[in-house]
Design a protein that fits this description.
The chain has about 200 residues and is α/β, with parallel strands linked by helices. Helix content is about 35%, strand content about 15%. Strand 2 (about 50), helix 3 (about 55-70) and strand 3 form a beta-alpha-beta unit. It is globular and about 50 Å long.
Length: about 200
Amino acid sequence: MRFIVLRHAESQWNSEGIIQGRMDSPLTPKGYRQITALCSALQTMPVSLVISSPSGRARMTAQSLAAQFNCPCQTDERLQEQSFGRLEGLSYAQALRDYPDATQRFFSGELGEWEPEGESTREVARRMVSYLLSLSADHHNKTFCLVTHGRALQALIWTLKGEASPDDLRKYSHQNCSYTIVDVNDCGFVLVNWGIATHLLTLR
């Protein structure tokens, strides 16, 4: 089975540097241009199902992909972004001022419980890996497109690469509408390629 796992298109809060997590904001004009470029890049892929995080920014991205592939589009909470607790809705400067310890641990890639009202990065990684395994158990020789979020994607790739240090988490950041290809076979996960963004090079 093959998964095309991607980050949603640029949202207003992405462009303004505001921490989103489970909160939401609309897509920007650039975000819609990113979707167009992504659809063009993936047009030959034999995608039979698009599954999205329930957030609006992810669903808007997913619906455009499903229309191109002429396939169903579903949502699943297991693809939602990491919960950042009290940091959500704040700029980096505001978060650092109001919650300095949690903010520093968040941006350092802290893996454990750093925010009592949020979700740890390890929890996100387990959630993402478990979901891909459950899908692959029920659907063989299919290609699914999964629309998720930046930190959730980082946690997934960090785990599939077998990393141990939180410092390595930052290496796997994804641009909006960049994508990763993951295969699942009898031997487990195969990370084919990650962070593909060549289709975005000419966008402004």
